[in-house]
């Protein structure tokens, strides 16, 4: 005896997308499946778009997070090895870390120099001659010679 719990669907937070009858023609079934796959993909893309991406860091035993769209840059200074400074729209923090690990984890950030990871969404201008990035809030950072070409290409791609 099969015990079907009607609430199992709700508990597992799943829902049917469509109901395809077998008595339809093969062409009708095929078009319904394609339509359902396109609908599922559109719903997935919509969910990804609305899901807020966060940048997370830890200071001691406390965990913090900042919405990725507020993060401006991460940088290190030689005087404090093993320490990363984060600048966001509404806060600034220093925490233990490594830019190489953060670059791997947060692929949307651009490494413009060995000491800087930046969020290009906050760049107001890029002076390719001086190899300098200008941000909102008057922040400025240098771009390495090798990264300047990549950044120029990225900025052009963003324009189009």
List keywords for this structure.
160 residues, alpha+beta, OB fold (Dihydrolipoamide Acetyltransferase, E2P), five-stranded antiparallel β-sheet, three-stranded antiparallel β-sheet, 10 strands
Report on the structure:
The protein is an alpha+beta fold and 160 residues long. It folds into two domains: 20-50, no CATH class; 54-159, LytTr DNA-binding domain (OB fold (Dihydrolipoamide Acetyltransferase, E2P)). Helices cover 32% and strands 29% of the residues. The chain has helices at residues 8-11, 26-50, 99-105, 145-159, and strands at 54-59, 62-67, 71-75, 83-88, 92-96, 110-113, 116-118, 123-127, 132-135, 140-142. The termini are far apart. The model has no long low-confidence stretch (mean pLDDT 84).
Biggest beta sheet summary = 5 strands, antiparallel
Mean pLDDT: 84
CATH topology of the largest domain: OB fold (Dihydrolipoamide Acetyltransferase, E2P)
Structural class: alpha+beta
User: How many DSSP helices?
Assistant: 4
> Which radius of gyration do the C-alpha atoms yield?
24 Å
What's the total number of strands?
Answer: 10
| Assembly status | single chain
The CATH superfamily of the largest domain is identified as LytTr DNA-binding domain
Distance between the termini: 62 Å
Strand order of the largest sheet: 5-4-3-7-6
Assign an overall shape.
elongated
Q: How many independent structural domains?
A: 2
Helix content: 25-40%
Could you give the order of the helices and strands? HHEEEEEHEEEEEH
The CATH architecture of the largest domain can be named as Beta Barrel
Low-confidence stretches: none
Approximately what portion of the residues adopt beta-strand conformation?
25-35%
Q: What is the name of the CATH class of the largest domain? A: Mainly Beta
């Amino acid at each position: 005896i099969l015990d079907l719990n009607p609430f199992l669907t709700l508990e597992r937070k799943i829902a049917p997308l469509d109901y395809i009858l077998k008595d339809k023609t093969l062409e009708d079934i095929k078009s319904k499946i394609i339509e359902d796959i396109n609908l599922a993909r559109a719903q997935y893309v919509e969910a990804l778009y609305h899901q807020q991406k966060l940048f997370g860091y830890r200071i001691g035993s406390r965990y913090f997070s900042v919405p990725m769209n507020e993060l401006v840059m991460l940088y290190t200074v030689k005087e404090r090895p093993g320490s990363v400074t984060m600048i966001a729209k509404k806060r600034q923090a220093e925490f233990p870390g490594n830019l190489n690990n953060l670059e791997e984890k947060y692929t949307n950030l651009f490494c413009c120099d060995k000491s800087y990871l930046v969020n290009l969404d906050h760049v107001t201008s890029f002076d390719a001659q001086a190899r300098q990035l200008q941000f909102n809030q008057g922040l400025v950072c240098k771009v390495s010679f090798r990264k300047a070409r990549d950044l120029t290409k990225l900025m052009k791609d963003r324009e189009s």
